[in-house]
Amino acid sequence: MKNPNFFIIGAPKCGTTSLHGWLAQHPEIYMSSIKEPHHFSSDLAFNDDWCDPKHYNALFEGADERHKAVGESSVYYLRSRVAVPNIEKALPGSRYIVMLRNPVEMAPSMHGQIVFNADENITSFQQAWKLDPSRERGENIPARCSDPKLVQYRLTCTLGEQLARLYDTVGRDRVLTIFMDDIKADVRKEWVRILEFLGVSYWDELDFEPVNQARHLQWPWVRDLYWTYTAVRKKLHLRPPGLGVFALLERIASSEAKRDVISEDLHKDLVATFSADIDLLAELTGRDLSHWKA
User: Fold this and answer.
1) What are the residue ranges in the chain where pLDDT is below 70?
2) Lowest CB count within 10 Å: 91, 112, 130, 247, which one?
3) Which residues of 118-153 are buried (b: 16+ CB within 10 A; e: fewer)?
4) pTM score, two decimals?
5) What does the pLDDT read at residue 209?
């Protein structure tokens, strides 16, 4: 077993699942057998399954000398205030990949994922967005939400602020930023940058198909069953399982989701909310992101 030496630390709905899957196919890279263990984000409440070091280390049992890069992907490490300091304490010198996306698009996409995961009970993004200020105060949190931070969309999508905190903690040399726009425009160019950053050989024997597209759960009872099972397992302190039968049921019971149409007024509100943070992100990355506010 080898310890991880790099982390995809966010952000949600920015292509991290696709990247995790692509990297896992590279012969010199080992990715954790479970995505998003969130072992190091001890300020979040939804990492209970993998907080035990024994359980977490088991995710890398297959890593050996063939693997120059060993990594995992936990999309809320970027938002967490303690995850990166915890990583630096346990695994100093680690490298970090940050996936970035226009927050005006990211927020509604994230909402759809949270609804799918049953942490959100408001299916309309517009209504959920109106609740965001009260949720930042800890109010109007859905009963089944595993952590109130999951339904605080503004705070999760302020990527400039989070990237600035990351740079303040580890500097820039060990951080690679990847824009979702660039992945869509020229995925192979970005793939080269990623492999060079990780110090592995060039390899592209894969199709670069996107993973984790927006989904709608046609059989909600599957999610209810999983939620009940998880609650019982945690109460009995049982080791977290692999994906197993629930992942299979989820695939069978879900279909491609129809995207909500964002009204012009809501779009203007999102742009106004994220405008200053977009400017900060542009300054940090040296990119012109003015089109994000159009």
Assistant:
1) 47-48, 212-260
2) 247
3) bbbebeebbebbebbeebeeeebbbeebbbbbbbbb
4) 0.86
5) 85
